[in-house]
Specification:
This protein has 4 helices and 2 strands, in the order ααβαβα. It has helices at about 5-15, 35-40, 55-65, 85-120, and strands spanning about 45-50, 70. α3 (about 55-65) links the parallel β1 and β2. The radius of gyration is 24 Å and the shape is globular.
Length: about 130
């Protein structure tokens, strides 16, 4: 269960596009939760990916009061507003790491090039 469609798309992105094997419910707002409770009740297990805010926590508690087994996934992204925020920050972090690695590679190549120009022809270089 997802609070919004963007959160579901973010989940799919994090899972490399692999769709879950279970039913998926997208509320589009936690205010739609009461309309979905009858749909949720017959399901054996519910996995919630709701926002880390008061509304998301309250909705999760409501679901737990109606359904037998509820797996709240919000703690997995507790440092973020929601799963989309996690994805966005992860992408930024990956870009920063890529830029840092590119910079290190450039520095290493520059160092090797400087060593090559300092050595005389026919002399062995140590790597």
């Amino acid at each position: 269960m997802f609070e919004g469609f963007i959160n579901y798309l973010s989940y799919l992105t994090l899972k490399n596009g692999k769709s879950p094997k279970a039913d998926v419910l997208i509320l589009n707002s936690v205010s739609n939760l009461p309309k979905s409770l009858d749909y949720l009740k017959p399901h054996k297990e519910i996995y919630t990916f709701l926002d880390n805010d008061d509304a998301g926590r309250s909705a999760t508690q409501t679901i737990k009061s109606v359904c037998t087994i509820v797996h709240d996934q919000a703690p997995k992204y507790s440092k973020y507003k929601d799963i989309n925020d996690l994805l966005c920050r992860k992408e930024v972090l990956n870009e920063c790491r890529h830029e840092t690695n590119q910079s290190r590679l450039h520095d290493s190549m520059t160092s090797v090039n400087q060593s090559v120009t300092k050595n005389k022809p026919g002399r062995r270089m140590k790597f």
